Amino acid sequence: MTWPASVWNALSAASFYPALVPVVFGTLNYFKVWLPNEDDVRRRCSAHREFLNEKINKALSRILVQATSLRAADLRGAPPKEPDLIADHTTEVFRVFRIHSALDATEATLHRTHTLLLVTAVMGVFCLVGAFVLADLRPHFTIAALLIFVLQACSVLRVRGALKRLSGYESET
User: What single DSSP character describes residue 130?
Assistant: First the structure.
């Protein structure tokens, strides 16, 4: 596929501006509110983990308190009048494990995105320098810079989705 000469020449003439976009966008993400600080998210996830662990501890404590005064069969209860303490605890443990995994994934997503933005900003610098030095390849650098920007924007949107899920976990439990 060959592009018309007018499009190719326009890409060549404007190659400096698109090459600046990934550099500017990649560095702005470290200073703007649409991408949170890693330490802030780590603190939120840790606080939520502690909250969930405390819920598990309370459920286990209820079982242990009941175990001293009841037989093992009584701990299983007869729902809905008498709660099944063992089943309730097991269900809660599995739910907490799932949320713990999701919190780990949120932290990993944010860390990978920060790293990706740094790498893509450096790639944007290379596109800018390449556009200055290699005039024949300017259209290629323009296309590369625009693709880098799309990658940056998608990664920021992914983090926003992960933070929305984190907020959902915080309000759900």
Answer: H
pTM: 0.68
Average pLDDT by consecutive 10-residue portion of the chain (173 residues)? 58 64 68 72 89 86 72 62 74 87 90 86 84 81 85 87 86 76
- Dig out the tokens for 129 from the structure: 């320098």
CA dihedral sign, ordered 33, 36, 37, 41: positive
Residue 79: partners with Cβ closer than 8 Å, 6 or more residues away: none
- Domain of 165, in residue numbers: 5-172
Nearest to 142 by CA among 1, 8, 24: 8
Burial degree of 137 (CB within 10 A; 0-12, 13-18, 19+): middle
Contacts of residue 155, defined as CB under 8 A and 6 or more positions apart, other chains included, come to: 112, 113, 116, 117
Answer yes or no: are the C-beta atoms of 30 and 157 closer than 8 Å. Answer: no
Helical ranges in the chain per DSSP H: 5-13, 16-28, 38-69, 72-76, 85-133, 138-172
Q: What is the number of structural domains in the chain?
A: 1
